[in-house]
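Researcher: Let's do a round of design. I'm pasting the structure tokens now; please hold your answer until I've finished.
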């Protein structure tokens, strides 16, 4: 099976002075051959963030892309119908934003989970964790098929003091995992029987048996060791993650400018999407047909990295994502 070329389309400046260009990504040396489909990478929002762009969530109800700028303390909402990008500012790092079924948005703010009313700017604190652990804060999070919130924490500069939590529909908080470095990507299979999870510092993607009715994870298995993947720098780490309708996972590789599609059955990479910035952070499927991949990145644009902090849109991948789950708790704004 031969590799197919891809086309990266970028505005104004950057790769090949903004002209369309064709490249052949490197083939993974230690795993089965990668199949690279034809796709197109576009800059959707240049200079979208200047800190760490993260947590993309496609809101199918409003046809909008939600994302955060962690260290500028901003939650963003980009309207696909109007092209308008608005934001709400907090006073602490924000790391996830997910619609609440009954209105408003679930947002992580420092060590807190809050319910934000975008129209009024008011928010209500729902929960707080790790009050006595200095340096910790929430990081990535997603809702499971039942509408529970899963969100993990990270520690800095002393790693492995983080945990993974589940917030149930009644608002109660439960700790599921401990000794986590940087809690990151989450995804569930269509049948709700498997949960995938990333802890970034060990560079591992894990799989758990999942009891969707109870929200319980068991039987942790190592799915992918990023150290075995052909990346240019051993310091690169897996970051955010999403899943498509074929139950294949898509993982952003922070520091290597890639999103890689893996086959969970074998742990092998299938497709590698390359970006004109090194700091890709997370990804989600969106658009009317859920066949567009939206990718966030970190950093402030510079001469050496002009697309740092941009939000990218990838089309022509030949796959679709699932509608993102929202929080189903009994909350009203």
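Researcher: That's everything. Go ahead.
Model: Designed sequence:
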């Amino acid at each position: 099976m031969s590799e197919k070329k891809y086309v990266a389309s970028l505005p104004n400046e950057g790769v090949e002075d903004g002209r369309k260009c064709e490249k052949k990504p490197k083939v993974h040396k230690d795993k089965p051959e990668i199949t690279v489909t034809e796709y197109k990478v576009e800059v959707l929002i240049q200079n979208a963030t200047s800190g760490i762009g993260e947590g993309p969530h496609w809101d199918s109800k409003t046809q909008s892309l939600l994302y955060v700028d962690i260290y500028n303390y901003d939650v963003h909402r980009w309207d696909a119908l109007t092209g308008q990008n608005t934001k709400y500012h907090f006073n602490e790092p924000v790391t996830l934003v997910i619609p609440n079924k009954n209105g408003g948005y679930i947002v992580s703010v420092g060590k807190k989970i809050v319910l934000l009313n975008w129209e009024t700017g008011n928010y209500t604190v729902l929960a707080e964790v790790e009050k006595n652990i200095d340096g910790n804060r929430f990081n990535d999070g997603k809702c499971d098929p039942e509408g529970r919130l899963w969100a993990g924490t990270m520690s800095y500069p002393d790693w492995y003091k983080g945990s993974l939590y589940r917030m149930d529909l009644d608002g109660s908080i439960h700790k599921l995992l401990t000794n986590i470095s940087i809690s990151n990507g989450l995804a569930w299979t269509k049948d709700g029987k498997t949960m995938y999870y990333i802890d970034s510092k060990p560079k591992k993607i894990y799989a758990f048996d999942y009891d969707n009715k109870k929200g319980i994870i068991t039987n942790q298995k190592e799915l992918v060791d990023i150290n075995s993947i052909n990346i240019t720098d051993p310091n690169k780490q897996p970051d955010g993650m999403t899943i498509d309708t074929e139950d294949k996972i898509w993982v952003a590789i922070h520091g290597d400018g890639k999103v890689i599609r893996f086959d969970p059955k074998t742990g092998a990479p299938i497709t590698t999407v390359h970006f004109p910035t090194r700091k890709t952070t997370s990804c989600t499927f969106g658009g009317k047909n859920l066949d567009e991949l939206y990718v966030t990145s970190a950093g402030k644009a510079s001469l050496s990295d002009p697309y740092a902090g941009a939000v990218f849109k990838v089309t022509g991948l030949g796959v679709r994502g699932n509608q993102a789950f929202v929080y189903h708790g009994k909350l009203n704004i």
